[in-house]
Amino acid sequence: MSNPILIDPLAFARDGASLQNERTVASLAKRVHELLASNAGVVKFSVEGFQDRLLRPSLRYRLAVTLSVDCQRCLTPMPFELQSDGVITLFTKESKLEDAVAVDDELDAIMAEETFDVIALIEDEIIMGLPLSLMHDDCDTDALKRAKADKPNPFAVLAALKKSTS
Questions:
Q1: pLDDT average, residue stretch 133-148
Q2: Mean pLDDT of all residues in the chain?
Q3: CA dist., res. 95 & res. 110, Å (int)
Q4: Rounded CA gap, 45 and 22, in Å?
Q5: pLDDT at site 158
Q6: Among 44, 45, 125, 157, which residue carries the largest CB count within 10 Å?
Q7: Residues ≥6 apart with Cβ < 8 Å to 15
Q8: pLDDT, tens digit (0-9, with 9 covering 90-100), for 70-83
Q9: 105-118 in b/e burial notation, b at 16+ Cβ within 10 A?
Q10: Are strands 109-111 and 77-91 parallel, antiparallel or unpaired?
Q11: Is the whole model's pTM more than 0.85, yes or no?
């Protein structure tokens, strides 16, 4: 389990506070590690509190990290650069949150609690930011080339049948 960075989200937004930090990928939760080829790397992130144009308390976050993930074609590790940013709008009443989301379906909104774990947000963004199937543009491994060479062409039988009927 990672060490949380806890903030009071409403006070953070109201005060226009900001936080810049970094964490090693290895220090993040196991749920992140399960998706990666290795735990190498450092996540740099920032969170800024502000009020949006409708004077609602909000948090703006940014993160950048280079992760090591497995290529789904050749199964070797490859680097993946992830940069993510967004805004979370905070609400204290469920009805106001529902009304706001009904008006703006792209609004990322949550109910404000007493504490907000910034590291959990960063971990969630990493998980959601990973594509389902990452692959090298051109896998250049000997094992993959051998596998392709050893595999018979599925249309070779059809070609042989066509030649025998001609």
A1: 69
A2: 89
A3: 12
A4: 6
A5: 72
A6: 45
A7: 49
A8: 998 888 899 999 99
A9: eeeebeebeeebbb
A10: parallel
A11: no
What is the dihedral angle through the alpha carbons of 141, 145, 150, 152, rounded to the nearest 10 degrees? 140
Sign for the CA dihedral angle at 123, 124, 129, 131 comes to: positive
Long-range contacts of 15-19 (CB under 8 A, 24+ apart): 15/49, 16/48, 16/49, 16/50, 17/48, 17/49, 18/46, 18/47, 18/48, 18/49, 19/46, 19/47, 19/48, 19/118
Tell me the C-alpha distance between 157 and 131, whole Å.
37
The per-residue pLDDT for range 84-137, each reduced to its tens digit, is 999 999 999 999 999 999 999 899 999 999 999 999 999 999 999 998 888 888
Give the whole-angstrom CA distance, residue 159 versus residue 157.
5
- Amino acid sitting at position 99: D
**What is the distance between the alpha carbons of residues 107 and 87, in angstroms, rounded to a whole number?**
8
